[in-house]
Design goal:
With about 160 residues, the chain is mainly β. It contains 1 helix and 6 strands. Strands 1-2-3-4-5-6 form a 6-stranded antiparallel beta sheet. β1 and β2 form a beta hairpin.
Length: about 160
């Protein structure tokens, strides 16, 4: 009903890379209002908090959408929706070998989605790059971690 997947969790919980993916998966299904037409633009913000398995992280994802035409997907008419994204991740994570790690980072991405005339998500692709910094007490400086991810969903029947 909200147009988004809810309560996405990263397993295993101590994995800093999976925590960054949470926001992308949570925002996979674009909110498209009835009557959207080619040329329409809108912005959506999604926040995902993870407080399980000793984690306390938040991913904030801002998506800029535009309806850029229509196509046929799996024999169905669909609105083509393009998106650009910016994201931030902040918080702390527990790691059995390193103890408490502070995590912060920023990312950018883009995607193309297809939404049927009934509002059903018909598939799409979202790619992003996230530059994170992990701070641990045993390291003299933050450890840079770059995550490049592509999520591709074929038509859901």
């Amino acid at each position: 009903p909200t147009g988004h997947i809810k309560n996405v969790t990263a397993t295993p919980g101590g994995n800093p890379l999976l925590a960054s993916v949470q926001g992308v998966v949570n925002a996979l299904f674009p909110r498209v209002k009835a009557g959207t037409k080619t040329g329409d633009h809108w912005v959506d913000t999604t926040e995902v908090s993870n407080s399980g398995d000793g984690n306390n992280t938040k991913v904030k994802l801002i998506l800029n959408y535009s309806a850029d035409g229509t196509e046929t997907v799996g024999g169905l008419p669909a609105t083509k929706v393009n998106a650009t994204t910016t994201s931030t991740v902040t918080g702390t994570m527990e790691n059995p070998m390193a103890g408490t790690m502070e995590v912060e980072g920023n990312g950018v991405g883009n995607g193309t989605f297809f939404v049927g005339s009934d509002g059903r998500f018909l598939g799409g692709i979202l790619s992003s790059t996230i530059d994170q910094r992990l701070k641990v007490s045993m390291a003299p400086a933050p450890i840079p971690v770059k995550t490049i991810q592509t999520l591709n969903v074929t038509m859901i029947k």
